């Protein structure tokens, strides 16, 4: 009888031995060496999309809820301090005006002190002379224009320094804090002192207009209106000086 298992080293003849299964039979493929069908793609041990050992159970999936749906789309980070992408979370013109009003009340105290230190007595003498003068009569004591101008300039500088320091170090003035808002840059951080100067430049413009006789008060009012209108008509709730500084006022 011919030996069907030439690799057989078994002296019992025709019975298959270990080498027949492991090495194949006369160059033919071993029918028992087909690999483990459970190791193919889609099996329970493979990291395929829907396998139990894949992304759905325990493995990291790059498209989970916290990751952006598109690889090139920027992820939205709503952590505190980051500016929202849209204007919905930002205070409007009236809310910001309230913060400005509160800051004005705060600055009013040192402003009054400056006025009385620099020209308080001259101002009181002028008030007394004006009240005692007849209608149409020029007061005997002139108005202390130069001293009042110096006091106004120093008050404006104090206001400016206060706002720049608070915005660049604390994220906003006390008025902003009171209305629950803060000033941030495009990356959600505190703005720099230079950007804060740009952002508050409108105030110096209003102060300069205030020195113009007769029409100065109207021009200063026009600046305030322009700031409010630019905030109300901008989708990002930015005033024209906010744009100049690339700054945003956001709700906390």
TrEMBL record:
Biased composition (Polar residues): 27-47
Keywords: Cell membrane, Membrane, Transmembrane, Transmembrane helix
Membrane topology: Multi-pass membrane protein
Compartments it resides in: Cell membrane
Compositional bias (Low complexity): 1-12
Residues covered by region (Disordered): 1-47
Domain named RDD: residues: 91-246
Protein name: RDD family protein
Organism, as annotated: Corynebacterium macclintockiae
């Amino acid at each position: 009888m011919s030996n069907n298992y030439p690799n057989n080293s078994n002296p019992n003849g025709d019975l298959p031995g270990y080498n027949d299964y492991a090495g194949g039979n006369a160059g033919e493929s071993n029918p028992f060496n087909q690999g483990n069908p459970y190791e193919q793609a889609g099996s329970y041990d493979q990291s395929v999309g829907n396998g139990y050992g894949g992304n759905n159970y325990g493995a990291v999936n790059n498209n989970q809820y916290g990751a952006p749906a598109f690889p090139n789309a920027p992820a939205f980070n709503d952590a505190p301090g980051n500016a929202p992408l849209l204007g919905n979370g930002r205070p409007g013109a009236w809310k910001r005006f309230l913060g400005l009003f509160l800051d004005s009340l705060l600055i009013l105290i040192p402003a009054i002190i400056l006025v009385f230190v620099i020209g308080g007595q001259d101002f009181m003498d002028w008030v007394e002379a004006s009240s005692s003068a007849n209608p149409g009569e020029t007061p005997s004591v002139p108005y202390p224009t130069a001293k009042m101008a110096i006091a106004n300039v120093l008050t404006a500088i104090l206001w400016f320094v206060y706002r720049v320091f608070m915005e660049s170090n604390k994220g906003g003035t006390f008025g902003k804090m009171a209305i629950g808002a803060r000033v941030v840059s495009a990356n959600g951080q505190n703005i720099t002192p230079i950007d804060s100067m740009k952002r508050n430049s409108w105030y110096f413009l209003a102060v300069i207009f205030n020195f113009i006789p007769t029409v100065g008060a109207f021009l200063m009012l026009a600046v305030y209106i322009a700031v409010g209108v630019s905030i109300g008509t901008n989708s990002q709730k930015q005033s024209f000086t906010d744009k100049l500084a690339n700054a945003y006022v956001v709700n906390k």
